[in-house]
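Help wanted!
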Amino acid sequence: MADILLSEAEKTFILHGVRDNVRNDGRSCSEFRPIELELGLVENANGSARVRLANTDVLVAVKCEIDNPSSNFPDEGKLDFFVDCSANATPQFEGKGGEQLAVELAALMSRAYQTRESFNLSTLSIIKGMKCWKLCIDVLILECGGSLIDAISMGTKAALADTKIPKVSVIGSDEGSLELELADEADGREEPLDWHHAPCLVTLNKLEDSLLVDASAEEEACCAAALIVGVSPNKKITTTSIPGHGSFLADSKVFTRALNLAVDVGVKLNTALEAAIKKHQTLKPPPRGFLD
Amino acid sequence: MEVTDVNIRLACDRICLPAVSENEVQKLFTPGEDIPTCAGFMRGHGTYTEGEDLKASVAGVKEQVNKLISIKPLKSRYNGEIGDVVVGRVVEVQQKRWKIDTNARLESVLLLSSVNLPGGELRRRSSEDEKMMRKYLQEGDLISAEVMNVYQDGALSLHTRSLKYGKLSQGVLVKVFPSLIMRRKNHFHSLPNGAAVILGNNGFVWICPASGLEHQEDSGSAGGFIQDLEKEVPKADREVIARLKNCILALANSKMMLYDTSIIYAYEESMKFTVTELLLPDVMVDVANLTQHRLHLDIAE
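Answered by r_m:
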């Protein structure tokens, strides 16, 4: 997110490269940089995941708590997103610097998960109208190097896959107040279904007529506009957002092209993420962590 | 547009660095660690005395020249010496000079009197020249220069008074640790694969198509300030440059020294991978290992 100074010649070089589909590091315009994923790093959370995408490092943890459902949706649970831009990421995040960005990212993630098709909130209901699970999804941004929302959405999906919600049974009701009992460890816990349809958000940067997936910091400095699209595995778009000052209206064909490209990339991203999560869940490796 | 598959690895498959090591493993000192000393020693950079003991103040290896003990850090800001070739970016245009960022502790200075004026004339710089400064070098421009002088506070004074220095045109900048660049006689290399490389002592490496450097030398009278922005670099050259960038990052990742031979060998060893495969960490370690092996064979011969 930091402003990088580039000379006119460097920008021209990047622009011509993007036209030829050969970026500065040899990638094509629709290629991601290598991504690293780890599940279950945070032991006292119900589920957690860490995603490292080139320079961007994001840690997502999911904690469950019992709450009263909202009166508009009595048979649904709740999802609450909170993003914390730590000062470790860039000096601009020191103090209150990262607050605005954090609020925007949390709002974007909430919108992406709003639809019932991406995450079925009714599975979180314990007793209709009275008690439900509230999943608090906390995102910690450790390092900020571009494609931030992509990493956050991947981390969220992986953390949800790693989440295990304890089984709850009602043991008594005492004049309107309920007593709930959590199952023992020995009795086993269940995981929420339906993380398979959770969306992944893809950021596309527009550089003249070309669209870049996973732009590096230098490329972002040349791009005028960006488009963020939330794509679920069944090729449906859950949310779109155009951050910053740029616009896509100059040429509407670019916008439709961008949406189609985002859907294609999003589907591939979802497939790769699912495969990696499944591999992790079958292998069950010991935690590797941050230090080598 | 074809969409390539996404590659997601697991942390458990991460390869430990560094897998590349020299023959002897040198002892690394950490800040606060005691350094074994001889009688009558002299204290050099990177050390401090606590009572009677000599301790390291930075993390690095010990360097001893007769009785002078110092610690050379692996990762530090660039410390300039007179005669070094550096690649820097203009950050400010001041009254009679430019401020250049060279990855040092202080911004370096390029005085108006230390550059070649277009037209190659040798004359006194007038107030007209001061107003035209921004036309020569703007904020964000990259230049190659030589260190002329080191001020008392450690700031460097640069000059571009030779035809091979000046504003850099189309290309890619790669940033590595300054300690990885070997000090050589020549820092401008024209590689056999069609690209040219400038290894700045400050850790900034500039990769450009070979025609870029030639053009700079031909336009002698211009003094290296003309940029050809219209010219499009051909796709083959672009791939060479991208591959070189990834090779340099692979060598830097395994903390190997960068000089023309090591870069050429790394480039040749990387040919069995595609350019994008070179972004994967295990491939980077592989390339560094193969280069190390070849360099050892060279020394053995």
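OP: Thanks! One thing I noticed: The mean pLDDT of chain A is 85.
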